[in-house]
Amino acid sequence: MKLSILDQSPISSGQTAKAALEASVKLAQIGEEYKYTRYWIAEHHDLPGLACSAPEVMLGYIGARTNQIRIGSGAILLPNYRPYKVAETHHLLATLFPNRIDLGIGRSPGGSAEVSMALSKNFLEAVREFPQAVKELKGFLANDFASDHMYAKITAAPLPQTAPELWLLGMSKKSALLAAENGLPYAYADFMSETNGTEIVKLYYDNFTSEHNAKPETIVAVSVICAETTEKAEKLALSSLLWNVLMAKGEAREGIPSVEEAESYPFTTKDKELIMNMKKNMIIGNPQEVRQKLIEIKTMYRATELMLLTITHEPKDKWRSYELIAKELLC
Questions:
Q1: In a domain, 268, yes or no
Q2: Nearest to residue 131, comparing CAs of 73, 102, 74, 170?
Q3: pTM for the whole structure
Q4: DSSP symbol at 41
Q5: Rounded to whole angstroms, what are the CA distances from 18 to 21, 35, 48, 182, 282?
Q6: Phi first, then psi: what are they for 258, rounded to 5°?
Q7: Any idea where the Luciferase-like domain is (predicted)?
Q8: Could you give the CA distance from residue 79 to residue 107 in angstroms, rounded to a whole number?
């Protein structure tokens, strides 16, 4: 089974943003040690508890501290930028770290409406133009435009020997069809979705087309917390569950709470109902339980690969979770 890592670079209560970003570097190194296929870091803006607003910057830092694992953005939120600049940035990374760079792209804002205005001024228009932006980005990455195209005479320099691997991320029928129509691999965010994801991924497979005989590939991203025992995993999960409850209330400015803070928090009946719904999109358990659930999800989605997102208060608990899963499925 191919397993990979999705990192949101969370900041825990009492932790600095720098410490959170250094923990992300350590996570990528652990992923490399335990033979995870790739490490992706997400883009978020002005969101409490999340440190990475510029994946392309972190990838340069992480690439210099790892040797083999594929590293990438999960995702660069394309409506915020021009495709040419995104291609230039990732071509530079692919030149520095040959055959290791992934470029995941998405269309979500990654922050509030005010953030979208600050980044792109006309975000809604950019979302409408997203399909065209994807085609432009493909052209720049391949250095391949028709001779009469307006961009035919320019390149997104430097041109690496191996172009970044372009992935389209999403969790809707629209994103699945866009990936299929462009012959792109597709990453589905199961951990965020409340819809029937298997139908969306099937839509991708059923409509996949390619000019270069590429085969459809899918990553399914899932939320996982693994520990030596189920009881410990459930306890560790309280931190991220409380964090999500607080975010829903607009009260999450202190970062990921500790287990002790979560255990003493006065959850209301509404909070508990929210937690029960959140746990439906999480895998929480001991290594054997997590292994079985991951196998079931891979089979259910016909996924090429699974990508695991783990959020705990203590970085060491997150690192240990990935280690335990790797020893069950990768070693």
A1: no
A2: 170
A3: 0.97
A4: E
A5: 5, 26, 14, 38, 28
A6: -75, 165
A7: 1-298
A8: 6
Name which of 57, 64, 66, 54 is nearest 5 in CA terms: 66
Asked if residue 255 is part of any domain, the answer here is no
- The whole-number pLDDT of residue 124 equals 87
> CA 10, CA 318: separation in Å to the nearest integer?
11
- The parent domain of residue 24 ranges over 3-230+284-329
Q: Is 67 a residue whose pLDDT tops 90?
A: yes
Which one-letter DSSP state was computed for residue 216?
A: P
Residue 147 lies in a domain: yes
The mean per-residue pLDDT over the stretch 93-120 comes to: 93
Q: pLDDT digits over 124-137, tens only? A: 898 999 999 999 99
Ramachandran angles phi, psi of 68, nearest 5°: -130, -35
- Does residue 15 fall inside a structural domain? yes
Task: Report CA 139 to chain centroid distance, whole Å.
Answer: 23
Residue 7 in tokens? 């990192």
Give the CATH number of the domain where residue 121 resides: 3.20.20.30
Q: Is the dihedral of CA 247, 249, 253, 257 positive or negative?
A: negative
**Domain count of the fold of the chain:** 1
